[in-house]
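User: I'm preparing a small set of examples for a lab meeting where we compare how different chains pack in three dimensions. I only have the primary sequence for this one, and I'd like the structure in token form so I can line it up with the others. Please keep the answer compact; I'll paste it straight into my notes.
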Amino acid sequence: MNRLNERYSDLIYYLFNKNNWCSLDELSLKTGFSRSTIWRDLTFMTAGFPREWNLEKNDTLGVRLNKPPNGTLESLWIYMKEKNPYFQTLEMIILQNGVTVSDVVNRNHISRSTVYRQLEKIEEVLKSNGIALSSSPYRLQGDERKIRRFIMQYMEVKGLDIHTEIDNYDTEEFLASLLKLTTKNSISLHIGAIQRLTTIMYIANLRASYGCYVNFPEEVLETYQTTDFFEISKRIFPFMYKCPSRYIQLQEILFFAMYLTNEEKPINRKDDLRQIRLNLRSNNDYSSKLFLEQLSNNLNYDIINDDEFLFKYVQTMRRISFDTQFDTDTRVNQLLSFLPYLEKNPLFIEIEELASQYLECEHFILEKLDIIEIFLLVQSSLLRKRNETTFSAALICRTYVENDYITQVLKYHFSSQLQIIAFDITDLESLQKFNEFDILITTFGHLSLKHIPVFNLSCIPSAAELNEISYFINQYFLNDIRLDDEKLYPFTNQFIVCH
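Assistant: Understood. Below is the structure token output for the 499-residue chain.
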């Protein structure tokens, strides 16, 4: 889906993070596009920017992206996708059960040759998702479950506000009923599940209104017909589009039940973790055990001991397995927009290679989005471990006013990572006798201790001075587990820790 907008995304991403002037040569080097292509794209993009955004051009300095306060990459991408002619044509195909070239020409005010070029590109994207595009009229065709999954991805990528888009059932009443039923059945749902399920119901009703229905094997229907998820789905029947037969209606109920099943979150996290570890020890989940052990070896850090990571990793793998088996998908596909800036990261490459070696099989293939999710979980674990690294810091200042101010500045920037104890200059000799402190921070410019690092600060510290402490903490952690800085956090060079 992101292929319909990938070149513009590359340029915007780099300019956004550069946050300064950038020459065309630099843009060409970073994005791999020619200077003429970049200039043409920039000229085109400028016309499609929101009012608060603009590209400033200078013959000497190059270009820079001016953004509003609190402007985000995603908000700009979503706006541009709304204006993107490919997405406008695709939206017509999705929301209408068959469109002609003339329909697109009249609606979007473009030439027939442009429409044919757009349809060719859209057909490539559809093919990569396992579905096709019929011709004259143009409509989606193929496995209905894959078609609905594609529409779900489209709505996610476009960032559509479901409450303004949905008009084929009462969303407020649906939400209230769904929450009441899941609570009654003691079913806990993942974050964002209610919004995704609301979208799924909209898509199911849209497709059913075109006479396009899902079809699961009989054994799947028999297996899930007795579950609480199916019973809840039956209870929200009034919100579903009425189907021509009871059997088709049962299939549509099952379709929603499958998505509801996939959104379940274990109620007792402690019990679930205990079972996960038991499965790993008994080799019931041998492939994951090998994957996690090898990943831990590569990181020099036993990631299996991180309960937060392990719990969410297993939840992710369960969902991926369910998606693979039944062609369901409730992931946030906005992550795909960041794929070009992650897939060259050495940790991403390692995870992808290990997943291919240990996790994939004939009936379980991991997609790029799956790797991104695992990558983010691993990075969360590493950053969590890094943020738990604490240092005992001795602080020596010239006055109690300095001491109070420097202490609060350090707490502001380093939170719980520094355990600060204040000393007087006369205590320096006693500090040399003990090994209780990891670092000394002082506003005296001439102090030194042989056994611990000393960091000198001004009475009002600059960002550069504070970054010396941040760099020390970062490098200590990286050296401790022998980890490359880029693996810990791929955007380190784009940000500074000091506010």
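A couple of notes for your slides: The chain has five domains: 2-81, 84-142, 171-265, 269-387, 391-494. Residues 494-499 have pLDDT under 50 and may be disordered.

User: Perfect, thanks.
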